[in-house]
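Support reply, case 0932

Customer input (verbatim):
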Amino acid sequence: MVTRVKHALRSTFLTGLFITLPLAVTFVVIRFVFTGVDGIFSPLITRILIIFGAHLDPEYRIPGIGVITTVGLIFAVGVITKYYAGRKIIAMFESFIVKIPGLKGIYSASKQMIETFSSGGMAFKKVAMIEYPRKGIYTIVFITNTGKSEISARAGMEVVNVFIPTTPNPTSGFFLALPKDDVTELDMSVEDGFKLIISGGMFVPPHGANEQPDRPGGI
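Our regenerated output:
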């Protein structure tokens, strides 16, 4: 009875965590963006109104300018990117950014990461486990690619590309190319893999009786 109650409490807590955590992160990001935009545009709007005869204190800040401006900018970008000319402008802007020393790697990595996680991690093919950082210790990884590559050719064996995420933020981590036999594919979904990592192991996806037992190695 006690075990069942503890399990129910843990399950309820994790459900609440997975719902509130993305909302909290989204709120922090939106607040940061709104505050930054408001700090730029609100004084500008106040000055323009004063020029046109409005009797305002130069330090006055119009409430909501940051929200309205941010939403407007996002909407404008969405509109222009629907057209060929808009896409060309965005492409030109991106090509300019990647030519600036130091920004190319940051921008490219950020864009790839956002595209990956905005699709619910669908860029990851499967969840697997490897023995890392030493034999006898297992780490959850996401398989990103398989098949022949220059790494495979130079290593003289088939390798599997994996992404090792960190806890509790799976958007950071690092990449390894491992021999195929050192990667054990798991039955859990990519979504369950994310939950396992974010919760630090508190959430454990169920392993059904009808599923295949763990294999000693290989995918």
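We compared this against your earlier run and they match. Two observations from our side: Strands lie at 126-131, 138-145, 159-165, 173-179, 184-185. The helical segments are 2-51, 65-80, 84-97, 103-118, 150-155, 190-198. Please reopen the case if you see a mismatch on your end.
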